[in-house]
Amino acid sequence: MNNSVIDIKEIASTMLARRKTYFKVWAVVFVLSCLWIFPQPRYYNCEVAIAPESADASVGGGLASLASSFGVNIGNMSSSDAIFPELYPDLFESNDFLVDLLDIKVTTQKNELTTDYYDYLKNHQKNNILIMPFIWTAEKVRGMFATPEKPIKGKNGKRFDPFHLNKEVNNILEQVADNIECNYSKTTGVVTISVTDQDPVVCALLADSVKERLQTFITAYRTKKARIDYEHYKQLTADAKEQYERARQAYGRYSDANTEVVLESFKAKQEDMENEMQLKYNVYTALNTRLEAALAKVQERTPAFTTLKCASVPIKPAGPKRIVFIVSMLILSTIVTFCKMFRKELMEWF
Fold first, then answer.
1. pLDDT of 14 strictly over 80
2. What single string gives the DSSP state of each residue in 168-232?
3. pTM score, whole prediction
4. How far are the Cα atoms of 57, 168, 292 from residue 141, in angstroms, in the given order?
5. Is the pLDDT of residue 80 over 80?
């Protein structure tokens, strides 16, 4: 920078003399800003906050509390879970999780529309009327050259297949990922889910549904091994009970048919059948005990979620900030006009 002195009075007098230029620029920028920002559709934001139960609440003890004050969470160092709260935000980038959100039923504020979230995003989104001709033209041109895509059906009764998505569904999933945000605080251990949408009721419904889907997803993951064990022991217990019932009925029929028989061979067979019945009963009892233990394990592995902030229909829109946008454009236009008006002086100063 040169040693030239900046004359503030001269700059102010020059700006005052050319104030009509600023007025013209402000008028044009104000009109253009209003034409652009006011047709922009309003959007709303809804947040829910939950505190997930730690996989091992006793891990770390006081050390974990001390470390959390420095933004470090050591509670998962000994945890056997592969999905701990720090990874919850990554779930919202997974197609497996996002695809399930497309079937959520939503209703608009004035009850004008009730449909699923996929149809809502595909056919019922508002756009700026100024760019509608460009969108319509782009769709027509794309339709002339693009090859029609056949819908890909999902597996196991699902509507879409996360492994194989067509372009249309993939674009919808990208929009869903943009509308939903999940954050985890290492210091407080709170998971915050934020949903943005053009309709306040849809926004609140989706926020609550996403919270429930997240809890269901985590619960299914945490209890998967325990539930598999439970189903295994349930089948073994049912088979053992059936075998015991058959042995008991066979023993009863044989005993009734040979009540007055005193031959040792009949008594020996009756004793063998009684022992076999008792053996099968012992097996059934042992498996039933394991079944109850497996059921208790499922309950033990089921995580608890504390809802700190429930979903509620937002009253005021979150954006766009029309006044802020217009004022920002006016300030920017003032700076640009100033730089253009004093470009020679600026070149000398810098």
1. no
2. HHHHHHHHHHHHEEEEE-TTT--EEEEEEESSHHHHHHHHHHHHHHHHHHHHHHHTHHHHHHHHH
3. 0.73
4. 58, 16, 64
5. no
